[in-house]
Amino acid sequence: MINQLNDALGFHKEVLNLRQQRQQVLAGNIANADTPNFKARDFDFAGELSKAVKSGRPDHAGGHLATTSARHIAVAGSAHPSLHNLQYRIAAQPSMDGNTVEMETERVRFADNAVRHQASLTFLNGYIRSMKTAMQSE
Amino acid sequence: MSMFSILEISGSALAAQSQRMNVTASNLANAESVTSPGGGAYRAKQVIFENAAYSAQAVGGVKVSEVVEDSSPMRLEYRPEHPLANDEGYVEMPNVDPVGEMVNMISASRSYQANVEVMNTSKQLLMKTLTLGEGM
Question: What is the ipTM of this complex?
Answer without folding.
Answer: 0.81
